[in-house]
Amino acid sequence: MDQAYKKLIDGNKKFASDRKIDDPHYFKNLSLGQTPEYLWIGCSDSRVPANEITNTVSGEIFVHRNIANLVVHTDFNALSVISYAVDVLKVKHIIVCGHYGCGGVRASMSNNSNGFVDNWLRHIKDVYLKHKTELEAIADMDARADRLTELNVVEQVKNLCKTKAVQKAWQEKRLMVHGWVYGLNSGLIKDLDVIHDEITDIEDIFRYSNYE
Ligand code: CO
User: Fold this and answer.
1) What is the mean pLDDT of the chain?
2) What are the domain boundaries of the chain?
3) How far is the CA of 24 from the centre of ligand 1 (A)?
4) Given 99, 144, 178, 196, which residue is catalytic?
5) Which of these CATH numbers, 3.30.70.1290, 3.40.1050.10, 1.10.260.40, 3.40.50.150, describes 35-206?
6) pLDDT value for 1
7) pLDDT tier at 12 (50, 70, 90 boundaries)?
8) What's the pLDDT tens digit per position in 158-173?
9) Does the annotation mark 102 as catalytic?
10) Is 140 in the active site?
């Protein structure tokens, strides 16, 4: 039986003891509650941990991750996270962060089947189709995947802005939505400058006139 999991328990003991050495009240303070200012919607990829790559600590970022950082309007998991973060925690920023070299994005560009996950990746194929002309003008497949990664983030940001929770918070002028892409090669985040903070940023058909 593989014992590799024990590394995590041992790592946790070291984590807990190191934090207590730095600040004896660290866990007591954290246990009192959370007031994060950010909601992070990122990819499940093990190489893109929200806190680590933003040099933040426990309590600073509310996190939702799934394969290829999608915001799907029938995904109760994501919608619950968004609703709780915006309505209850009152985060000030939501960041959709994709990453170059995303396996989900790459797989969506292929005709190969990858099993059940294909159902999820279908959403990225829709993004591809929407931007087919631009994407197929890029001959290099890595560059094309990079561009699809960016366009996917832009589309997911739009999906996010179509939610009632986001629009309500906009009306109260307390929320900004951002689209970023993280570079696995460089360790750096690229801001796609797709900041949205008002109702006119989305097409009319998606705007709510009330928030019941
Ligand atoms: Co990914």
Assistant:
1) 95
2) 1-33, 35-206
3) 37
4) 99
5) 3.40.1050.10
6) 79
7) very high
8) 999 999 999 999 999 9
9) yes
10) no
CA of 212 to the centre of ligand 1 (A): 35
**What tokens does 33 get?**
């509650």
Confidence at residue 197, expressed as pLDDT on a 0 to 100 scale: 77
pLDDT at 163: 95
Kindly give the distance from the C-alpha atom of residue 42 to the centroid of ligand 1, in angstroms, as a whole number. 8
User: Cβ–Cβ contacts within 10 Å for residue 65, how many?
Assistant: 17
* Cβ burial 2-41 (10 Å sphere, 16+ → b, else e): eeeeeeeeeeeeeeeeeeeeeeeebeeeeeeeeebebbbb
The predicted-structure confidence for 94-122, as pLDDT tens digits, reads as follows 999 999 999 999 999 999 999 999 999 99
List 64, 102, 146, 161, catalytic entry: 102
| CA–CA separation, 162 and 206 (whole Å) | 6
Catalytic residue of the set 45, 64, 97, 144? 45
Confidence class of residue 195 from pLDDT cuts 50, 70 and 90? confident
Q: How much distance in Å is there from the Cα of 73 to the middle of ligand 1?
A: 20
According to DSSP, the residues that pair with 42 across neighbouring strands are: 65, 97
